[in-house]
Every structure is written in C-alpha cells, then in structure tokens.
C-alpha cells in the first residue's frame, strides 16, 4: 500500500511539473505566433474590425463582467479564497491559493511590460503596445483556480465547472468590448494554469484532503464527469478556432468558402471558450490527485474479534506458560 501510494504521489507531482512547463511554453508560443508575426497580427486585427461593429450593443451587456477584473476585485477574491481555507483549517491550502493568485497576477504584469514586446505590423489599435497576457482575465481565472485548492474534495468538480464558465465569460467580455485580443486571453489562462500546476506539484503531502473526508468514490465520479464534459467542449472548439483563423484571409488551400472578419471574430470567441474549458479540465484531476490523502504506511492495530472479550493477563517474566498436554 505504501509503495502504491508513493508511486501515485510521484506520478501526480510529475504530471504537475509537465503541465506547468507546457503552459509556460504555450504562453511563449501564443505570443510568437499571434504577436510577433504578420499573419497572427492580421488575424487579430480582423477580430477588432468586427468587434468594433458590435461594440455599441455588446458594451452594456459585458461592462459589469469587466469590473470583476479590476484591482478591488483582485483583493476581494484573494481575501475570500484565503478566508475559506482558513475557516476550514487548511492552512497550507490557503497559503498555496495565495501563491496562485499573487504569482499569476504578478507574472502577467511582468511579462506584459518587461518580457514580451509588440512591433505593430498591421492595424492602428494599440499598434506598438503589448497587451499580452490580459490582466483582467488573469484576475478572474486565478481566483477560481485558487478556489480549487481550498474547497472540499467533493465540491471541486462543481468549482472547476463554474471556473470554466467564469473564465469563458471574462474572456468573451474582453473580446466583445474590444479590450483585448484573443491571444491575450489565451496567454492569461495559460499563466494561471502554469502557476496552479506548479503549486500542486510542490505541495506537501496531505495539504488539503484528510482521511475520512468526502467519499472518494462519489468525488472521483464527479471529477471524471466534469473533466469529460469540459474536454468534450474544449477539443472541437479549439479545432474550430484554429480552422477559423486559417480561413480568415480566404486562403485557397483551406478549401473553405467563407473568410473575413466575422470568421476571425467567431474564431477568437471560440478560442476563449476552448482555453477556459481545457484549463479546468486539466487542473481539476491534477488538483484531486495531488490533494488526495496519502497512506502513511503505518500498520494499524488489529481489529477486535467479535464475541467474548477476554481480560488482558500479565505473565511474570520468570514463568513461561506451556501448552496443556
């Protein structure tokens, strides 16, 4: 039992490191493909051209959502998430949640202002100002990802599903109101995924769940169900998003009859939905695996046999009992 538990723990930690590294590399790839190249900038410029047509209609609908990405809501989310962890007496989980929120938001601002750059190749909107990753998206997604760390095991599937919906909502709001480009949304979500996976990989044993807590079978089934649903949403949505980007300029090699700004706009919206679903489809099972209470390997006392209870008898050390003939 001890070896199986240790092996599962090492596998979960290794998976967390792989996810963190993949998300970090993915953030750079998104910047290179969509910000540092002419085709990428052109596709996102078409998104803005179309978003500008609908902005008057979209703005009243999404403006309240965009407020959730502001600094006051960042502090509110940090306090609420850490407060839940402290009330549940999960001290380590509360600290790890704070690391996810603070680390994700600081990383977003640092790489946006000091690491990634933008040379305007097309368009006029913020031509030479780098906006990748989105700070507003980072605030909302980091809060929900951190909430996964402090909620009970049985509540994490529902939390992950709600987090995917919230991430999709803030992503669509920033795109619809012309605040950010699709690549900004995708990169912000990947930054949060990297920090959450890294924290799960580095967390000590028993950092969240305790033996005798939520029923494992019910929590595991809910985890499988939510992960499957989010994965089913993420995979085809991501494929359609890539297809829309390829068809935006009407390249004949795609064989598609449609092209233009509406296609790019639709592809950008699909990209926000795809990365939101995929992020929590990955983080939920990872969090459940690393938070599972591990066996200590100690041999438990033998259970009492049913029937008559016999009093404990002490035998003097100088007398050796013998079996009856």
Automatic annotation (TrEMBL):
Would you tell me the protein name for this molecule? Phosphatidic acid phosphatase type 2/haloperoxidase domain-containing protein
The segment(s) forming the Phosphatidic acid phosphatase type 2/haloperoxidase domain are 94-200
**Pfam families membership:** PAP2
What residue ranges are annotated as transmembrane?
Answer: 12-34, 65-84, 91-111, 131-151, 158-179, 185-203, 224-247, 267-289
Concerning SMART domains, the annotation shows: acidPPc
InterPro entries, per the entry = PAP2/HPO, PAP2/HPO_sf
User: What organism is recorded for this protein?
Assistant: Promicromonospora umidemergens
Question: What keywords does the record list, in alphabetical order?
Answer: Membrane, Transmembrane, Transmembrane helix
Start and end residues of each stretch annotated as Disordered: 296-325
Superkingdom as given in the UniProt entry: Bacteria
Q: Where is the signal peptide?
A: none
């Amino acid at each position: 039992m001890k070896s199986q538990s240790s092996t599962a723990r090492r596998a979960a930690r290794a998976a967390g490191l792989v996810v963190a590294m993949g998300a970090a590399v993915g953030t750079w790839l998104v910047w290179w493909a969509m910000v540092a190249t002419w085709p990428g900038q052109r596709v996102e410029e078409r998104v803005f051209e179309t978003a500008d047509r609908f902005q008057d209609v979209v703005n009243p609908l999404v403006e309240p959502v965009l407020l959730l990405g502001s600094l006051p809501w960042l502090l509110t989310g940090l306090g609420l998430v850490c407060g839940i962890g402290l009330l549940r007496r999960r001290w380590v989980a509360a600290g790890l949640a704070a690391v996810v929120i603070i680390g994700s938001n600081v990383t977003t601002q640092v790489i946006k202002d000091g690491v990634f750059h933008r040379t305007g190749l097309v368009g006029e909107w913020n031509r030479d100002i780098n906006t990748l990753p989105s700070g507003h998206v980072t605030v909302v997604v980091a809060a929900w990802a951190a909430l996964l760390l402090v909620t009970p095991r049985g509540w994490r599937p529902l939390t992950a599903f709600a987090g995917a919906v919230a991430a999709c909502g803030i992503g669509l709001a920033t795109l619809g109101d012309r605040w950010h480009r699709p690549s900004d949304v995708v990169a912000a979500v990947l930054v949060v995924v990297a920090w959450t996976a890294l924290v799960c990989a580095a967390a000590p044993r028993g950092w969240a769940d305790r033996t005798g807590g939520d029923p494992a079978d019910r929590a595991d089934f809910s985890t499988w169900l939510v992960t499957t649903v989010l994965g089913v949403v993420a995979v085809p949505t991501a494929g359609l998003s890539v297809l829309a980007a390829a068809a935006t300029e009407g390249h004949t090699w795609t064989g598609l009859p449609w092209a233009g700004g509406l296609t790019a706009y639709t592809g950008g919206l699909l990209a926000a939905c795809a990365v939101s679903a995929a992020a929590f489809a990955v983080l939920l099972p990872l969090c459940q695996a690393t938070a599972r209470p591990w066996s200590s390997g100690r041999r438990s006392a033998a259970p009492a046999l049913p029937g008559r209870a016999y009093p404990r008898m002490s035998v003097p050390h100088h007398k050796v009992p013998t079996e009856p003939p």
